[in-house]
Amino acid sequence: MTQPSTASEVFSASVERISAGLRLVERAMHEQLHSTSGLVGLMGEHVLSSGGKRIRPALLLLAAEMCGYTGSRRIQVGAAVELLHTATLLHDDVVDFSELRRGKPSANALWGNRRAVLSGDFFYARASAMIVEDGNLDILWIFANTIRNMAEGELLQLERSYDPTITESHYFRVIERKSAVLLSAATEAGAILGDVTRAERRRLADFGRELGLAFQLRDDALDYEAAEAELGKPQHNDIREGKVTLPLLLTLKRCEPTERDRIATLLKTAARLTEDSLSGVGESDVDELDVSPALELIARYRGVEDTVRRAEEHAAKAAAAIAPFPDSRSKADLLAAAEFSVQRDR
After folding, report:
1. What is the domain-level CATH number for residue 237?
2. What is the pTM of this model?
3. pLDDT in tens, 223-253
4. Which of 44, 251, 327, 331 could form a disulfide with 303 if both were Cys (CB 3.0 to 4.6 A apart)?
């Protein structure tokens, strides 16, 4: 039998090993779609069937296994974590005016913003109820704190949309809250289920946080280098939506004043086109905005390459966080997840 070689192949093998548990997670998620509103079930099935790597429940299952727990509670908590993630995707697509999610029409594109927001609220409620049913107060606190942090992250990002003066510290505050906090919650919840020491629990929380940062940094790099078919959404969406992510941020720090002004003008134009589109003024379409001047500068100043390098640094920190744990198959699988987070191409 040929041994997996790439990070993607190794992590896929890891996921396949726990596929029985992930199928139970998937079933538990679908069971939460029952509602007096038929539309909730319809929208829920659309969102859940659109795919996704199920990274968060996979990390929870692996963290719990590494800590010695393989019982049924990890299925319920894992499903709750993924339902929370699904709720944020529904809301994010509304906030970002996205019409595609994983290559398919987004829920808001099919059913409108109001229904998408309410459907997201339903997912938040069902996920919260599952955590309450589990009954562990530490997991409940982590879950509540995660929801707060993710909302704050979205607001922090919106506050500085289209802003060329954004700092790295602000950017990292955003991605830690929007992305890293939920992966940290998943791995820490797995540690709690395993009833490990406080120090070991912190190590797994740190692992999830660092992996989450690496994952988001790679995501931000992919927006500038991957093809639309690979992304499952329009290419170069971030700059059109006014998101000054690290590839662009590094470029703004390194480029000449005249070049910086060029990017600032581009962001200002994107903001105006978006506002015109929302208000129904004219026929402006931000999707048609020529962003090639910014792309050329990002390439010149190594914005993508250095973002990937930063992602690799955080992946290395994730690996270091769980280094003291005894070697095991689940530990190897978690290390493969860290490597996959920076080597993936979609």
Report:
1. 1.10.600.10
2. 0.92
3. 998 665 455 567 888 999 999 999 999 999 9
4. 251
